[in-house]
Structure formats: structure tokens, C-alpha cells
Amino acid sequence: MTEPAFTGGPLVSFQGVGMRYGRAPEVLRDIDLTLPQGSFHFLTGPSGAGKSSLLKLIYLAHEPSRGLIRLFDQDAATLARSALPALRRRMGVVFQEYRLLDHLTVFDNAALPLRIAGRSFDDYRQDVLELLAWVGLGHKISALPATLSGGEKQRLAVARAVVAKPDLLLVDEPTGNLDQEMGRRILRLLKELNRMGATVLVATHDVNLVAEGQAPVLALNEGRLAAPRPASAAAATAAATAGGPAAEAGPE
Amino acid sequence: MTFDPRTDVHDGLAKPAPLFPRQSQQDRTLGLVVAVLCFLACLCAMAALASDRAASGWRRELGASATVQVRPKAGQTASEAAARAAEALAGARGVQEARALDRQAAEKLLEPWLGAGNIPEDLPLPRLVVVDLDRRRPADVATLNQALAAAGVDAEVDDHGRWIADVRRTGDITRGAALGALVLFAVAAGAMIAFATRATLQTRRDVVEVLHLAGAEDRFVAGLVQRRFALLAGEAGAVGAALAAAVAALMTLAGGADGLTPVLPLAWTDLLAVVPCPVLAAVVAAIAVRRTAMSILLRAD
Fold first, then answer.
1. Which end of chain A has the smaller Cβ count within 10 Å, N or C?
2. Low-confidence residues of chain B, pLDDT below 70?
3. Which residues make beta-bridge pairs with A14?
4. Residue A113 domain-assigned?
5. DSSP bridge partners of A28
6. Strand pairing partners for A219?
7. Residues of A1-24 as b/e, b for ≥16 C-beta within 10 angstroms?
8. What Cα–Cα distance (Å) separates residue A165 from each residue in A182, A193, A198, A203?
9. What is the pLDDT of residues B49-72, one digit of tens each?
10. Is residue A55 part of a domain?
11. Residue A128 within a domain
């Protein structure tokens, strides 16, 4: 498993990127975006703004309708199909709809990226157990996803995304089903991974999370990306709106 | 929250679960079909071995003897001519024994056509000399003719060459038919498994997508399906082979030394023909799955 060479430029860069589904109008337009290595950003915007679509472009699940995307210093448009798995193994993704495998236990779902990376069961067993304990699922390692609550599924999805310590972590609505305490806990985990060198992009409309995250905010609106707001401005905006309709993180 | 591996390690975490779930109904049906195909393939292989053995035996018997039809000369009785021919042939190189059949023996040969006791006493019968050839260095037709000519006997030598050729051709056809049937069974099993692979990858598209998004290569995904179906085919093949061996063993026991019939003289060693069946089933499954899965996965994104 050889990883593509990375020369130290931005981990993700978009120039004039557009995206559409089928023949429908573009859901993303003229996106210019740069995620330097080791950065932490929030991606905010109302429902339907295109947050998940933008993440799809980054994790190579969808092709842009125009523009240039560079990932790990490589032009995504010229990447051979055979090169995609190696790039994807450097990313961890928390999907909004979790995408857990229903026939696998909590433990096996969380360990999936490590199995794909070729690590042996004995090698990853302890790491996975510790991570599951950290996200509060240590007592449910043998449970199937169907028996988990929404919040537990979300925590499991986070655990699966971070277990292989990816270089780039893409998180789509990580706290939508979590109570505030567990939301903070997940945020601390993401911050810790960021401190260890991971580049993190968190798509959310949870203003409390943004306020606590103390990170620059990329705001999407109707498919267009506004200029990044620094962490302090974002926190101020979040504080001003806290308690209002934007505070959508419901309890578990 | 703290984690204590000594107390929080849970039971039942012995090994990772298969990434592709078993689909009990589909797997059962597929297993049954593969087991039946393997059962038939094993019976076919054992029948081919038995018929080959029968054909070899017949060829050996026919090749080890010759028949000479003697034509008496004027003033000579048929018995005298036959005795003279037998005497001449017995001394030829490559002949073990030559014996003239008397009239009674000649009548017995005609009984299947004319019936017992229906042959008039004065009916002239061709007189035959049966020649047993040396199995290691059998005399050829020319040698026998030479010996007869030297003794002044007018006779026609039949070395059974036509029968041997017929038996050989029949054996070849039987072997070819058995081989063809085995290939057809393998193709049928491969097609079934390819169909099941396609169904699995389509019904569990969610699994394939998650694996791809987590960085799994196509050959990794194909390998998962391949292992699953190869194992299933191997197990089903073992069941089919065991059943075929049991049936063959019963036939051998029921038929005594000749097997069920002298035409198919099954030997205990023929049962070994079932041994490669599970492995072959697994290999056929592995090839079919790999080809099908890779072609589907390459078109998946």
C-alpha cells in the first residue's frame, strides 16, 4: 500500500469548482477553498446549502462539473481509479447518515478502516477497544447497529472515521444526535486528532459546536462559499445566536 | 471516562466477522446446486474410470489371442485340417498355445443364432483354431500366415484388430464424453456462482460503497466475496463428493468383484476420484467470483 507523495502544500484546494447531480442545476458554484495541512475548519450553512456535497467532492465520491480540485498535492481529475483507495485511506469520513454496516458489530464497524489497511486483528484489537470506550461504546462492542440509538450510531461513525488516525478528517454533522456533553467530548477528540497533525473539516449547523470549536468557519449559502471567518468572529456570531433557532443539536 | 482493558475486554471478541454477510437462503440454494453438480461430476468421473478399465481389459484379452479359420483341402477332413493348422501355429514364435475347436465347440458357437440342437449333422461348419499369443511378444498376422503357409494349410487369420479398434474408439468416446460432462458441470457451477456474486454485490451495494469509501481496493472487495463463495463451494463440493463416494461404495459392495455390472467394473481405488472435487469446486468458484466481481466493481464508481 503506497501512499502518494505529499510535498507539503495545502491538503485540499478547490479552484472555481462547480458540482451538479445529473442534469440538475449546480448545487455548488465557483467554490474556491484551501485547507492547509494541520488546519481545523468548520463548514456551516443552512440545510441544502451544499455542505455534504462539498464533502463528497473531497472524499472523491462525486466528480465536479467544473473547476480544479487538488488533494494531497494531486490533481483529482487526473487521478487513476487505482490511485483512489490509497488517497481514501488517508481520509476519515463521518457520514451524515452514518453508513454503518448493519451486519457487523460495533467493534467490527469501528475496526473496518484498520482491516482494510491490512492490520491484523490482534494488532488493532486493543486500539479499537480503547477508542470505543472513549466514545462511550465500550459496553456495546458486540451490539449490532440496529440496536443502537441515533447518538450511539453517530459516536460509532466518529470512531470508525478516526480509528486509523487519518491525515484528513471530514465530519458531516457529528453532533446532530448527541447531547451537549457527548458533543463536547467528540469535539475534544477531533481537536486532539487535529493537534496530532490531522486536517479537520467539520460540516455542521450546530452553533454551539462552532462557538466551542474556536476554529475558522467556511460558510456555504446556496451553493456558494463565503470568505472564511476567523475563529473569534465565528464564536461571536455563534454566541449571539446561541439559544435561538440555530441551536439545533438535539438531545440523544 | 476511563478504560480499563483488564475489565472492559468483552467476551465473544475472538475474531473479526466476515465483511460480507452470509445470506442464508441464497447460500443454501447455491450450496445445494453446487453439491448436486459435484455429486454428478464425481459419479461421471468414476463411471469414466470404470469404463476405461473395462475397455482396457477387453483390449488386453482381444490382443492376446487370434482366431484362425481353416479351409480343408481336397481329400482332407475339417478336423484333420484344423489339427494340422494348430500344430503348425503352436510352433510359431510368439504363440503360447494353439488349439483346434472340435465340431461340438463349433456348434456351440452357432447356438446363439441357430438354437441348440438345430444344426444338421451333415452341415459343413467352418473349423476354427484358437491361438493364445505370448503376451510379452505376441506373434503378428504375418508370422501366423507364414507358419500356416509353411505347413501347407489354407486358412484365414483374424487377429481381432477390428474389434480392438472398435473397443479403443468406444473407450475414447466414453472418456471424451466424461471429460465433456465434467467441463459442463464446472461451467454450470461457475455460472451459478457468478450469478450469486452479481446478486450479492448488487444487494449489498451499501457494503461495497462503504468499503470503497474507506479505501478498499477492488481486489480487496473481490477477495472478500471470493473467499466466501470459494469456501461455500468447497464445502458443498465435499458434501457432493462424499455422497457420490457413498453411492459408488454401495454399488461396489452390491456388485462384488465386477462392480455393479461387468461393463462398469468399479474398483475401490476409483473412489479416490472424488478427492479433488471439493478443491476443484473451490477453484472454479474462486475464478468465477474474481472475474465477475472485478468486472462489476470496475464499473461501480
1. N
2. 1-14, 256-263, 300-301
3. A33, A69
4. yes
5. A19
6. A44
7. eeeeeeeeebbbbbeebbbbeeee
8. 20, 7, 8, 19
9. 888 888 888 888 888 889 998 888
10. no
11. yes
Cα B37 to Cα B236: distance, rounded to the nearest angstrom: 9
CB B205 within 8 A of CB B276: no
Residues of chain A in contact with residue B209, where contact means CB-CB under 8 angstroms, are 99
Range of the domain at A151: 101-165
Is A28 within a domain?
Answer: no
CB A109 within 8 A of CB A164: no
Judged by a CB distance cut-off of 8 A, whether residue B21 touches chain A is yes
| ipTM of the complex, rounded to two decimals | 0.83
DSSP string, A183-248: HHHHHHHHHHHHHTT-EEEEE--BHHHHHHHT--EEEEETTEEPPPBPHHHHHHHHHHHTTSTTB-
CA atoms within 13 A on the CB side of B276: 10
B5 shares contact with chain A (CB less than 8 Å): yes
Q: What CA–CA distances, in Å, run from B36 to B47, B178, B186? A: 16, 16, 12
State the pTM of this model. 0.73
Name the minimum distance, in Å, from the CA of B182 to any CA of chain A: 37
Please answer yes or no on whether A112 and B19 come within 8 Å at the CB atom: yes
Mutate to test the interface with B, among A104, A137, A162 (most CBs of B within 10 A): A104
Report for A15-24, A176-185, B16-25, B46-55: range of highest mean pLDDT: A15-24
CA distance A36 to A2: 22
Chain A partners within 8 Å of B216 (Cβ): 85, 116
User: Which of B5, B15, B216 lies at the smallest CB-CB distance from A129?
Assistant: B5
* Cβ neighbours around A65 below 10 Å, total: 14
On chain B, the residues whose CB falls within 8 A of the CB of A125 are 13
Supply the pLDDT for residue A172. Answer: 92
The per-residue pLDDT for B8 is 41
B218-261 pLDDT, tens per residue?
Answer: 999 999 999 999 999 999 999 999 999 999 888 888 776 565 56
Interchain contact B3–A (C-beta under 8 A) = yes
Q: Which of A81, A103, A133 sits opposite B8 (nearest CB)?
A: A133
Query: How far is B34 from B268, CA to CA, in rounded Å?
Result: 25
Q: Is the pLDDT of residue A100 over 80?
A: yes
Q: Are A102 and A111 in contact (CB under 8 A)?
A: no
Non-local CB neighbours of A54 within 8 Å, separated by 6+ positions:
A19, A28, A31, A33, A43, A203, A220, A225
Distance CA B150, CA A18 (A): 106
Distance CA(B238)–CA(B233), nearest Å, equals: 8
Report the domain count for chain A: 1
Give chain A positions within 8 Å (CB) of B212: 84-85, 88
Residues whose CB is less than 8 angstroms from the CB of residue A246 and which lie 6 or more positions away in sequence, other chains included: A205, A207, A238
